[in-house]
Design goal:
Bound molecules: 1-deoxynojirimycin
Number of strands: 19
Distance between the termini: 23 Å
Helix content: 25-40%
Number of domains: 3
Mean pLDDT: 97
Length: 517
């Protein structure tokens, strides 16, 4: 393979700015707070950061309701702060991805305010307006992605029509059938690319193409509300814009569960560079299930289609909680880190995953999200509360969401001085990946290692490594057909170094990385 691109070499680290670090004591994280902690990211050798939305927003969906695509919300700072963040990242060799939210705007965006003002406004067709269905009611049976919202249409009294919102009522869908909308959204990309941003995560990329006839969704048939055949051309147009600039990258949120469809978004070299694989995120803790998901992607993908692996983000429960059966949550979160870093593909690490954070407990009176996602959005604990106060170094004020219960032990400062910590493990994984080309681009083969052990080999010339994870809550044997060197174990009690040819007894949920001799 030719020299890997920056986004193939190391991990991309997702920052959820509200919850990363608060520099001004208002309880909400901000850009200056991020800049203050870039050394943490440099120590993790991240290739890039992806910032969840930082644009002006009424925050109905915490920034995924954008009121101005070309500025920064005052709660996060200023455009000058963002320029400074990009410059400071670049100085450390870290690329910066912004979250582009093209499917919908805020209902406060001037485009929607105009669109809603009258049926003959020039922006009317920038959104999806329709008359009621025959006999009354919404134009079709599409549902919002948020269960609590229900139907995807809201009736607007002023002009007597319904508008589409695939998420909250405050997030009207743009009409991607309209070429003016496409051109305006492409210009948003250029605005940020001109400022030196290195690429984008595309929010709900699969929703940029819908049935223009707005046909009803029918269970068991391909949906009309997303992933319509026009998607290929839409993605190609977006890619052409980004390719006007050198070395930029697009990763799509492609929330589809048919891997053939997901793979098509990264095929042909003219659409996305990467697609988040939600099949992987939803897997049960089962070695055969993980193996099948890895093999299926490889079987469907062209050689040039590069996988992206992630097991957590701001919308999904954290691994340490989700896989916490049999008291194995902590050990499994460590195994997950190994899986992400050692598979062929780009690891995506959600802030706090490097600390093995669990979800936080959110008392009913602190719930703020419409869709139950507060637990995984709890702020990062930087310092022990016993030293830094209840804000744990995240804030000197009242945090917008409660922190995890065990911030004293889980905080960055405590983990930094503990060689047995999750943070020490993830730093070591990042060091190994940076130092070993075989972990970046080596050819990958999954192995048959019994029903409870997920194992795969990577090979680059004479360099061969084996990764194995014991999914069982009991110890299990890993057979080896020759001598090896143990480079890393997720079990801090395991001695590293030479391993005789016979095999290795893996502890419950233990993962190991071996160089084969
Ligand atoms: C996906 C984002 O990750 C999620 O947080 C958001 O609510 C929806 N898209 C709508 O933008």
């Amino acid at each position: 393979m030719s020299e890997p691109s920056w986004w193939q070499r190391g991990a991309i680290y997702q920052i959820y700015p509200r919850s990363f670090s608060d520099s001004n004591g208002d309880g909400v994280g901000d850009l200056t707070g991020i800049i203050a902690h870039l050394d943490h990211l440099a120590a993790l050798r991240v290739a890039g950061v992806w910032l969840s939305p930082i644009y002006p927003s009424p925050m109905a969906d915490f920034g995924y309701d954008v009121a101005d695509y070309c500025d920064v919300d005052p709660v996060f700072g200023t455009l000058a702060d963002l320029d400074r963040l990009v410059a400071e990242c670049h100085q450390r060799g870290i690329k910066v991805l912004l979250d582009w939210v093209p499917n919908h705007t805020s209902d406060q965006h001037p485009w929607f305010v105009a669109s809603r003002s009258s049926r003959d406004n020039l922006k009317r067709d920038w959104y999806v307006w329709r008359d009621a269905a025959l006999g009354g009611g919404p134009p079709n049976n599409w549902r919002s992605a948020f269960r609590a919202v229900g139907g995807a249409w809201t009736f607007d009294d002023a002009t007597g029509q319904w508008y589409l919102h695939s998420f909250e009522e405050e997030q009207p869908d743009l009409n991607w059938e309209n070429p003016e909308v496409r051109a305006a959204m492409h210009d948003v990309l250029r605005f940020w690319l001109d400022r030196g941003v290195d690429g984008f995560r595309i929010d709900v990329a699969h929703m940029l193409a819908k049935d223009p006839a707005l046909g009803d969704n029918v269970p068991g048939q391909p949906p009309h509300s997303e992933d319509w055949p026009t998607i290929d051309e839409r993605l190609r147009e977006i890619r052409r814009v980004v390719d006007e600039y050198p070395d930029r990258m697009l990763v799509g949120e492609v929330y589809l569960f048919d891997l053939r469809r997901v793979v098509s978004y990264v095929s042909g070299g003219d659409k996305l560079h990467l697609a988040h694989n939600f099949v992987f995120v939803k897997l049960p803790w089962s070695a055969p299930a993980f193996r099948a998901a890895i093999d299926d992607f490889d079987a469907l993908a062209e050689a040039a289609s590069w996988p992206a692996w992630f097991l957590a983000n701001h919308d999904h429960p954290r691994a340490a909680s989700r896989f916490d059966t049999d008291g194995q949550g902590e050990a499994r979160a460590r195994a997950v880190a190994l899986i992400l870093y050692a598979l062929r593909g780009t690891p995506f690490v959600y802030q706090g995953e490097e600390l093995g954070l669990p979800d936080a407990e959110i008392p009913p009176d602190r719930i703020v999200d419409v869709d139950g996602r507060d637990p995984e959005r709890a702020p990062i604990p930087w310092r022990p509360p016993s030293v830094a106060g209840p804000g744990a170094g995240f804030t000197t004020g009242e945090p917008w969401l409660p922190l995890v219960a065990d911030a004293e032990q889980l905080c960055v400062e405590a983990q930094e001085s503990d060689p047995r910590s999750a943070l020490a493990l993830v730093r070591r994984l990042a060091d190994l990946r940076a130092a070993m080309p075989v972990l970046q681009t080596g050819v990958q083969t999954t192995l048959d290692a019994g029903p409870d052990v997920l194992a795969w080999r990577r090979q680059d010339g004479d360099d061969r490594v084996l990764t194995a994870v014991n999914f069982a809550p009991a110890s299990g044997n890993l057979a080896l057909d020759g001598p090896a060197t143990l480079l890393l174990s997720t079990d801090p009690d395991r001695a590293l170094g030479p391993v005789a040819g016979g095999g290795l007894e893996l502890a419950p949920s233990e993962g190991v990385l071996l160089r084969l001799l």
